[in-house]
Amino acid sequence: MVEILFELPMNLLGLGISAFIGRFAYSGYSTVASPNLLRLTFAFASISLGFALIAGGLFAGSYSQVLTTAGLAAQALGYFFIAFSHSLKSFDLAPPKYFLLLPLAVTGFVIPGNSIEHLVRSISFILLVYVSIETMASYMQSRKSSTLMIGSGLGMLAGAELMSWYEFIYPYSFYIAALLIKVAGFGLIFIPFSKFGLASGLGRMNSQVGSGL
Amino acid sequence: MAAGYRTHVSIIADILSTARQYSYEGYESGATVTHLIRKANVPHQRLSSMVSTLTQSGLLYEDSAKYKISEKGIEFLKAYSEFKGFAETFGLRV
After folding, report:
1. C-beta neighbour count of A121 within 10 angstroms
2. Of A28, A92, A211, the CB nearest to B86
3. Mean pLDDT value of segment B33-54
4. At A155, is the secondary structure helix, strand, or coil?
5. Fold for domain A2-212?
6. CB B78: neighbour CB atoms within 10 A?
7. Structure confidence by residue, pLDDT tens digits, A129-154
8. How far is CA A27 from the centre of its chain?
């Protein structure tokens, strides 16, 4: 019961933030028809679906584990879409794209046991570390504080996934801390977004000036 | 942001901002194809198809073989600037 009282608001908060960012990215896609904004839409829609499934899992009784794992898989898919957008960028000193696949190939050897949930968490961790590093690399070029916040937020999400993954070894030792860090990470991502989304972008939601491009 | 490849959307924004410049800043007659090629830095064949699409979408309009930006085009440029900032916070290009 205590878990539900704590976890439910945290997951609903994460759901709200990610759904809001996804909706804004979609309004951007429908306005300027940018493929990267479409990928961000898919990413945040998937992440918010993940939060919804995890929140639903709190009330699902015997299906709780299934829903939680499905939610984590949806979030990992969301992180993949962000990572994929970054992998399409062309930095001057960019590593070959197959470098992204290397840690994924190693994953099967480094995770303990046969837990699907922890396999998904390890994939999420790798994707988030990659995205966080790429975003920080962008910050080094642009020196925008908002990019630094997003990079830090993604880094916090990676830290949260790692702590959750450690539950496999030390059950329930880091669970609450990991959830708090995860929501704080989304909070950091939301701060720079609010500058765009709340100020004017949401007013353009129905604007389709670039449709047909 | 590294000066690498330009996306399709960013080239469209370059074409529109060139047309805006020649429509309002003392060049009220509009931008010629040469102006667009020079400022947007795209080959003639590609520019022709893009300008045709932009005209059909109502973002540009032709006036005596010169191109001017429409109100819809100005609105697009404002939205582009806003969403460009949004994508750049994620370290991405629009």
Report:
1. 26
2. A28
3. 89
4. helix
5. Rhopdopsin 7-helix transmembrane proteins (1.20.1070)
6. 15
7. 999 999 999 999 889 999 999 999 99
8. 19
Report which of B88, B51, B53 is spatially closest to residue B67, judged by C-alpha positions: B51
Interface test with B, best of A188, A209, A211 (most B CBs within 10 A): A209
* Residues on chain A touching B57 (C-beta within 8 angstroms): 210-213
**Residue type (1 letter), B12:** I
Chain A: residue nearest B77 by CA? A32
Nearest CA in chain A to B58: A209
Chain A positions touching B49 (Cβ under 8 A) are none
Return the CA Rg of chain A. Answer: 17
Q: Domain residues of chain A, as ranges?
A: 2-212
CA distance B92 to A154: 14
Which token pair is A60?
Answer: 């699902």
The answer, yes or no, to whether ipTM is higher than 0.90 is no
pTM score above 0.95: no
